[in-house]
Amino acid sequence: MKPAVLSGVHFITGDVACAEGALAAGCRFFGAYPITPATEIAEHIAGRLPEVGGTFIQMEDEIAAIASILGASSAGVKSMTATSGPGFSLMMENIGLAACTEIPCVIVDVQRAGPSTGLPTQGAQGDMMQARWGSHGDYKIIALSPISPQEIFYQTILAFNLSETYRVPVLIMTDEIIGHLSERVVIPDESEIKLVSRPRAKGRKDRFLPFEPGPNGVAPMAIAGEGYNIHVTGLTHNEKGYPDMTVECQKQMMARLTGKIQNNLDDIIKTEGYMLDDAEIIIISYGVSARTCHTAVDEARSQGIKAGLFRLITVWPFPEDQICRLAERAKALITVEINLGQIHLEVERCVKDKVPTYLVGHVGGTIITPERVIETIKEAT
Amino acid sequence: MDEGSVITKKKEITITGFGGQGIVLAGIIVGKAAALGDNKQSTLIQSYGPEARGGYCSAEVIISENVIFYPYVRQPDILICMSQGGYDKFIDQLKDDGILLIDQDLVQAKGYSKEYYAIPSTRIAEEMGRKMIANIIMVGFFTAITGEISMDAAQNTVLESVPKGTEAMNIEAFTKGYDYGTALLKGRKKKALGKRGVQI
Q1: Interface with B, mutate which of A6, A9, A10, A11 (most B CBs under 10 A)
Q2: Can you give the CATH number for the domain in which A349 is found?
């Protein structure tokens, strides 16, 4: 057996850092179907998992890949899959199943330009709304967006911790650029990494209610095979887990599924401010696009423009309160993202015409240049 | 535009060639040597088409004293070309005072009027019996000519980055490139001094 946490300083890609973050988080099952630009996550973790007593399976397609991690997680193993746009589309049905049956799992989407096959080797951020609404019905998930290989390492650990805490699928919405970018990544000592495991079933095995919520709204989970009599279904189900096709039960179940996220926003949402204190022009961005914005803010400041950056580390649930507060004091808000305005719609919804909003978008295939952001900053000034 | 360019220097390097020449590995070695060996900041972006071999391929490395946010090369300070296609695609981006390095058997520096640095890296690799180590020869040549990464960092990184059992051959390749570069610089210096009629 080799160590799961490779403490030390490395020069690795975002994809490899993601795989190492998963191992450090305790992930011991990875089921996937290879797809550019997520293949390197599977490639790396396929070599590493057997070294730490874990299992890798290359499934026949992405539908099977996500099905395999739901099965493994139901058996008590922290599980992850990784894919890109076309594969992410195929996973949507089972993301809904995971949300409905509250099976913890982590799904990485290394975004490339779409729609359809699109530009397989070139980055984009076009799956952000799909991450939120891709499966049918009302449900809530958590989605994170890393700015660097270093951050994807920590975010993968965070994703597992959130997923285990709230029994919810957590999506890591990275992109080809971060996935294939090599940088210095410091992996800390194992003792410095805090891990969370799902609340577990206790008490009498014949009287256990698998969907009776605990204090934070999350039900303790019975592991398949440990003796609890449980029933798991994608049908609307009651606290026993049995199908109960009534409006009353649907109301109860939906209140639990959405409430466990909605009532814990302070614990879940993470954001970062750069030069925000006196900022008049505020840029909202996430993932690789935030790197462009850092450079643009520095340049604007050097020209005497009070610009700042509000970076979404958690994209879903959306930091509505924070954005509303920014709208109270900014002269303008600018959303920067590699799509035609997906998170921008959310920003507009929060701003409600209080201040002008601008979009610096891109159809995908490359990163947005700082010049384009600066141009818009000047236009908004 | 580039963070910290006023305070400290930042170097942008583009390495370009065919898929299969080890262009990305050359980029990894340069970036890793800078980040881990010389303790600077560095980023490496790799871009390539869908083909596994033969298609266009490039590695973009930025080395800086400060945090690098925008990881793409805008205007290379140093351009390394191991294919004619790569040269044709990137030569116009090279800074006016930039440094051009080429594999002289694979690239003709057409229309380039300034001084550049050429090495028969693929030919030397073939003479060593392993065509695939031309990239390591080029890394050695780059280290000698530009000094952007230290000799120690470069050599250690080559050792860490190549397959087990090929370390000695790769170090030999690196040294050949490095020595070729050092000799080229020495020769040019001598010639320059001679032209000016300076007594040594």
Answers
A1: A11
A2: 3.40.50.920
